[in-house]
Specification:
Strand order of the largest sheet: 4-5-10-7-9-8
Number of domains: 2
Low-confidence stretches: 68-74
Largest sheet: 6 strands, mixed, barrel
Strand content: 15-25%
């Protein structure tokens, strides 16, 4: 009951100077609001990036062609073709490599229905949808038999459907790639833009053998996609790929590069965390300034209410009661500011997300942490004024004008 009475006294004291109380809370409101806004936008961006990385596939490794050293000249991946279909078949035999797809990439003008469109034409294996976690929305993926027979079959993305087959079912129809007719056997489910801003749906997939023999006459593949059984064995599979290709290529230095999806995920996550820490640091400064404002106002309040303190002490109030009274006022002030700040931060983050077309996610743990931080600031910065009030001499306090 004493706690409730103390809270009532604190609220009554704050209502006496509404404008001053509001201006004092403003520092806490801005600080807590900044924390919530920073965390919401950073968490939303991180989850969006993680979702986009996962859309590229789970437990995926990519083997890039082309680290080379020739006549003292060195080049990174892509500087020379070094990977073959046989390399991909050798990787497919490794333990925990559950799916493999050799890749051949090229851009070409495709025609259908009297329309044309420049798009990405990729030669892939039948495991490609599994590796990329990409559902076939209509029809089916071409088969291993299609790869062996150099079949002229294709699977197309939603963007290509919209451009060449508006309001039509493309399955069973023909699309011409460099004047070579390919029968459409499937349509990929829409995925949208990837992490690098590329339209994933603007794509035509054909068997890699057909791409290499019929479209481009290549003998090397651009890269090899590999799916590990799970994230726990991805490093083991990466090491096995490196050893297998090094033995096959017999080069002094690796003429290939192996990258895994976790490396990309970790790099992006670390960048988002760094940005979050930076924004939270700025918000922490705002909270500190708000705490100083509370201390300043409470010291002024002690001076203004010196006679009131003397009267309370003269009728039996102990020093501890005075400490609790003023400490409760500081905590109430900061707690109310914290609650308003949480609502303000969530509203600002939602507005930024709406107009900036970015996701906003506010973790519940951060709402609790922000409220607890505001209460802690009230205790920390309100203790000294409360202690100072408790040390007043009752006689001198009663004489104070």
């Amino acid at each position: 009951m004493r706690i409730i009475a103390t809270i009532r006294i604190a609220l009554r004291a704050l209502r006496r100077n509404k404008m001053r109380s509001l201006l004092t809370m403003l520092g806490i409101i801005i600080g807590v609001g900044s924390v919530i806004t920073a965390v919401s936008l950073t968490t939303g961006a991180t989850k969006q990036v993680e979702s986009q990385v996962q859309s590229l596939g789970e437990s995926v490794l990519t083997v890039f062609s082309g680290n080379q050293t020739s006549g003292g000249t060195r080049g990174g991946w892509g500087s020379a073709p070094t990977l073959t279909v046989d390399d991909a078949l050798a990787i497919a035999k490794l333990p925990n490599a559950v799916a493999v797809s050799p890749e051949v990439r090229d851009r070409a003008q495709v025609l259908a229905n009297g329309l044309n469109w420049n798009t990405q034409v990729q030669g892939e294996g039948p495991d490609y949808p599994q590796i990329r976690n990409w559902r076939i929305a209509n029809g089916a993926m071409f088969t291993e038999q299609d790869v062996r027979s150099l079949a002229k079959t294709a699977v197309i993305g939603k963007t290509v459907v919209d451009q060449l087959f508006p309001n039509e079912d493309p399955v069973g129809q023909t699309i011409r790639v460099r004047n070579i007719p390919f029968t459409i056997v499937g349509v990929l489910a829409p995925k949208g833009f990837n992490l690098f801003g590329q339209d994933q749906d603007d794509i035509v997939l054909v068997p890699y053998s057909s791409h290499m023999r019929r479209i481009t006459s290549r003998t090397f593949v651009s890269s090899i996609l590999v799916q590990a059984a799970n994230d726990k064995v991805i490093d083991e599979v990466q090491q096995a790929i490196t050893e297998t290709l090094s033995a096959r290529h017999r080069s002094r230095e690796p003429d290939f590069t192996v990258r895994n999806q976790l490396e990309l995920m970790n790099a992006v996550t670390e960048t988002s965390k760094s940005m979050g820490f930076l924004l939270s640091g700025v918000a922490a400064v705002s909270l500190f300034v708000g705490g100083i404002g509370i201390m300043n106002i409470m010291l002024v309040s002690v001076t203004e209410r010196t006679r009131e303190i003397g009267i309370r002490m003269s009728v039996g109030a102990r020093a501890a009661d005075i400490v609790v009274q003023f400490l409760m006022e500081a905590v109430t002030l900061s707690a109310i500011g914290g609650m308003i700040g949480i609502g303000f931060g969530m509203m600002v983050s939602l507005l930024i997300a709406y107009f900036g077309h970015t996701p906003s996610v506010t973790p519940a743990v951060w709402i609790v942490a922000a409220f607890a931080s505001s209460a802690l600031i009230g205790i920390s910065f309100g203790f000294y004024p409360a202690w100072k009030a408790s040390q007043l001499d009752p006689i001198d306090a009663l004489r104070y004008e």
